[in-house]
Specification:
- The protein is an alpha+beta fold.
- The protein is built from two helices and six strands.
- Strands 1-4-3-2 form a four-stranded mixed β-sheet, covered by helices on one side. A two-stranded antiparallel sheet has the order 5-6.
- Helix 1 (12-23) runs antiparallel to helix 2.
- The longest helix has 13 residues, at 75-87.
- The protein is globular.
């Protein structure tokens, strides 16, 4: 359903280090690296998650209530991605574990 998602940053080099590490356990790799943006997707696929300097040159900001969920192949991948995110500057917003309130055996973590 989604064609792509853009995430803003003030520091593209720092963001690349974070996303390279945090997305690797989920099977995503950096597929595009251009002066103002980097793009991630599955190896051999198409970049669908973009991290970029804002087009309007205003400061990047986060959206309160904005959340992007990425699919993981199993619980170990969720845990590995969460650990990599924290090790590379992410903030813990919920440790890996089951979330029965969402049904269907949902297992997730938040950073």
């Amino acid at each position: 359903m989604l064609s792509y998602v853009n995430l803003g940053t003030h520091d593209l080099q720092r963001a690349a280090k974070f996303y390279d590490a945090a997305l690797a356990p989920l099977g995503y790799v950096r597929l595009a690296n251009v002066p103002r943006e980097i793009g991630y997707g599955p190896k051999g696929g198409q970049a669908r998650l973009w991290v970029l300097l804002p087009f309007d040159n205003r400061p990047a900001s986060w959206g309160n209530g904005t959340m992007i969920g990425l699919v993981a192949k199993d619980e170990e991948a969720v845990k590995a991605a969460w650990e990599a995110a924290l090790a590379n500057g992410g903030m813990d917003e919920g440790a890996p574990g089951p979330r029965p309130q969402y049904g269907g055996g949902f297992y997730g973590a938040y950073v």
